[in-house]
Amino acid sequence: MKRLTTALSRDKADTLLLLGTAVLVLAPHALHVPLWVALLCGATLAWRAAITLRGKRMPPALLLLPLAVAAMAGVQFSYDTLLGKDAGVAMLVLLVAFKMLEMHARRDLFVVIFLCFFLVLTNFFYAQGIGTALLTIASVLLLLATQLSFQFTGAVPPLRVRLAMAGRMLAFAAPIAIVLFVVFPRIHGPLWSMPGDAGGRSGLSDQMAPGQMSNLALSEEPAFRARFFGRPPLQSQLYWRGPVLDFFDGLTWSRGASQASGRDLHLAVGGDALEYEVTLEPSSARWVFALEMPGELPAVPGHRLRISPQFELMATDPLGSRVRYRASSHLDFALQAGPALDDAGRWLLLPYGFNPRALAAGRELRQLGDPMQRVEAVLRQFREQPFQYTLAPPLLGRHTVDEFMYGTRSGFCEHYSGAFVFLMRAAGVPARVVTGYQGGEINPLDGFMTVRQSDAHAWAEVWIAGRGWQRIDPTAAVAPERVRRGLDASVPRPAPFGIEALRGMNPFQGQGKAWMVQLRNAVNAVNNGWNQWVLNYTPERQRAVVRDLQRKLSGWPLVVLPAAVVLALLVLRMVRRRRATHPADALYSTLCKRLGQLGLARAQDEGPSAFAARVDGAADLAPQSRAAASEFLRRYSAWRYAPPAADPRLTATLKSLLSQVR
Amino acid sequence: MAQAAGGLRGRLRRATGAWLPRAGTQDAGEVVLGQRRVFILPTRAGLGFALLLAVLLVGSINYTLGLGFGLTFLALSCALVDMVATYRNLAHLALQQGRGAPVFAGQEAQFELQVFNRTRLARYAIRADFADVREARHVADIAPGSHALLTLAVPTERRGWLAPARVRLSTRFPLGLFNAWSYWRPATRALVYPRPEDGAPALPLRGDDGGSLRAPGHDDFAGVRNYQAGDSPRRLAWRQIARLGGESGALLSKHFEGGGGDELVLDFDALPGTLDLELRLSRLTRWVLDAEGRALPYAFRLGAVRFDAALGAAHQAACLRALALYGIEDAA
What we know:
The structure holds two protein chains of two kinds. By secondary structure, chain A is an alpha+beta fold. Helix content of chain A is about 50%, strand content about 10%.
C-alpha cells in the first residue's frame, strides 16, 4: 500500500483521494436513490479510478453529454419529476459522479468539493442520527484534506500529515461552530416547499379498521416525547387524545365531516393544571397530542392550531418536521356537561344492514333506564365472557362486530372500542371512538417520557346528560394491565428474527435483564438529548437558552467577562509572539542583550561569526563566559547559516551555554 | 469576466499600495511581515464557498435540518480558521535582499530575495514575484528555521540604475479560500550597462602614421613586475611565476614598453556627433568589451571621466559604470 502511494504521481494521488472522499459522501445516498443510480455512480467512479491509475485520457464531452442527458431522463422516469427533494438528490448524486469525469482545471475541483458539501446536507433529509453526525464529521475531514492536498505547490506531506492538518482545522473550527449553533438567529422554515416534500412517515391514521392498528402496535418508533414539570401522572391517566372517529360504514370507523362548529364546545376543568412539554416526532399527519384534557390551545411554533368540535387538536398544515410545544392539561374535566346534546343524532348513527345480532343486543339494553347501567352491562360482558386481548386477532368478515362479540372474542383496542361504541349507539347512548396514545415510558436517566407508536390506542366516549362526554376504555375491562402498565406488559413481543432462544437478548424487550433495560434507557436518553438539543433547536428553544444565558451572565459578569476575554486575547498574543520566533533566535537575542550588559554590544550589522571573533578577543570578559559565548555563537551560526542540519538538542545546548555567560 | 476581475485586482493593488505603511519608500535591511503588512481577501473560490454556505443555510432553514445547521456552521468555521491559517502562513516571515549584479541592457537583471522562516510553523506554497506580474513565477515551501532563496528576474531596456519594482508575496494555503499577500520594496538596485552595439566598427587603433594596426605597448618586452589589479590575465608571466613566485604564491605580469603615441583611446568626443547619444554609448561599450577581450590596454574618455590606459575587470567595470550613468543625474 505504501509502495503504491509513493509510486503514484502527485496528481494521481490527489485524484484518488478526491475519489475516496466522493465515495464516502455518496455512500449514504445509495440507501435511498434508485438502484440504477447507485450502480451508475459506482461504475462512473470506478471508471474514473481506472483512468487515473492507467493514465488514460478523460472521455470526450461528446460521450459524456448524451450519458448525462440519458441519466436525467432516467431520473424523470424513476420519480416522474425532476424537481422535488428525492429527484433533486438523485440528480445531484449523478452530477457529482459525472463531474469527476469532466475535471480539467482547479475550478472544477472546487465545484466537486462544494457539491459534495451540499450532498452531505441532503443526506440529512433521510437520517439525522448520531451516526449520521459522525459520518458527516468524517466526510468534512476528508473534504478538507482533499481541498488542502490540491493547494500544495512543492513538496506534499504524506496523507497522514494532511489528515492531521485537516483535523487540526476541524478542532479549531468546532468551538466556533458550536457557539454559532447556539446563538445564530434561527428562523422557522419552510421558506418554500417542493412537491413531494412531506415524507410518508407512519403515524396515527384517522381511520380505524380491524388490522390497521396492529401495524403501529409493533413499531418501536417514538411518536413523541414528553417532559413533565412536576410529578408525571399515573400510567392509567395517560390518555393522549388524537383523532375522534364518529362515522361507521360497517367496516371502517372514520372521521365524519364535522358539520358542527366549535361554538357549543364547552369544557369545564377542575384541579391543578399539569404542565409539560411535548416533542412531537415528524409525521405526515396534522395531529397535535395532549393529555386529556388540555385547558388551552398549546402554541406550536411555526404552525397554526385549531380545535375541532370533538376536541381534537390539529395543525392547519402537516407537521412534517419535529416540533416542540408546551401544554397544560387537567385530568379532572367535564366536556359538554349540559342537559342535552345539540347534535345527538350524529352520535347514534349506525350503518344499515350490518351486525344484526349486536344491533338487537343493543336494543335490548335500552330496557335499562340509566345510560351508565347500559355501559356497565357491556363492560361486564367483556369482563365475564372469555374475551382475549391479542395483537394477532383472526380476520373478520362482513359483520365485524357480530363476529367479534359472539365468535372470535379476541382482539385489541380497536375491536373492543369499535364494538363497544356500536353497542352503545344501538342502545341509544351517544358514543364515539377516540384514538390516540395511551401510556408512555419514563426514562429515569433524563426524565423524558417516550410515547411510542406501539402505544397507539383506541377507547370510547359516551355522552351522559349532565355529566358530558365520559371516557370509557373497554379494553381495560379485558386487559387492565394494558392501561395500567402499558402494552409491553400485556402482550408478549415477537422474538428477534423469530427465534425463541433470542428472546432474552432483545434489549427492547420489557422483561429483559436489568442491564439491558439500562442500556436501552441510556440509548434512549442519548437519542432524546440529541433530538432536543441538536435536531430540534428551534427559535423558541434558542430564545430560552439565550435568556437563560443572559440571566446567568447578568450583573458583575457583564463587566468581568469582556475584560477576561480581552486579557485572554492579550496573553494569547504574547504567547503567539513568543511562539512566532524560533527558540534559538530568542536565545540569541537574549545572549546579545546579556553581552551588551557586559559591555560587549553587538553592532547592528554584525553577524554571529564576526561577533564571535570580537568576543574571542574581548579581554574584559571572564574566560569561562567568553568560551561559552563563543561556543554559543559558533553553534548558533552553524545552525542559522547551514540549515537544515537540525540538531534536536540545539535549544537545550544553547540554553546551558547561555547560563554560563555572566 | 477575467478581464474585469483583473482590472479589479489591479485597482485593488493600487489602492492598497496607496495606504501601505511607508508606501513607495524602500524597505532597508531585514523586513518582517507583521500584522500591518499582510492583507487578506477571499479568492474566487472563497466567494463560491460563501455562496455554498448561503445555500446550506437556506436548505437547513427550509427543511428544518438541525444537523444541517451544524454542518453549515462547521463549514463556516472552517473558512474562518482557513482565513487565520492563510494569514499565519505568510505573516512573520522575514525578508532580506540579496545582491543585484550589473547587467547589460536587454539582459535580465537578477535580484536575490531571501525569505527566512524563523517560526515553528512550516510555510507552504508561498508565491513571490514582482507585483506587476500576473501569475507569480516563484513558489517556495519554507520549513521552520530555514530559508528560501528566490531569484527574481526583470528584463531591462534602458541603461542606468534599475530599482526593482515592489515584490509581492502571497499565499492561498491551506484551503485556497483566501489570498493573503504582502508587498516588499527591496532597497537594492542593479546597474544596467548600455547595450553593446551589434556590428560596431572595429576598435579605433591608430599608430603614429595613423593607420597601422599595432597593439600599443605590445612591442617591447620590458621584464616582469608584480601583478596589479587591472592587469590582463593574458599578460601573466606564467614561466616566471612558475620559477620565481612558486614559493611565495605571488603573481607576476609581463611588462611592455611601447610607443606612447599608438595608445588605444576610447574617446566619446571622438565619435561623430551626428550619432545618437545612446548609440555612441553603445558603441563605446562594445569597444570596451572588445579591448578587454583582446587584452589591449585602453584609455577612456567620457565627459569628465578620464581613465588612463589600463586593462582588467576593475577598469572595465569603472568604464562601463561611467557609460551606464552618463548624463544621468543620480550618478552616485
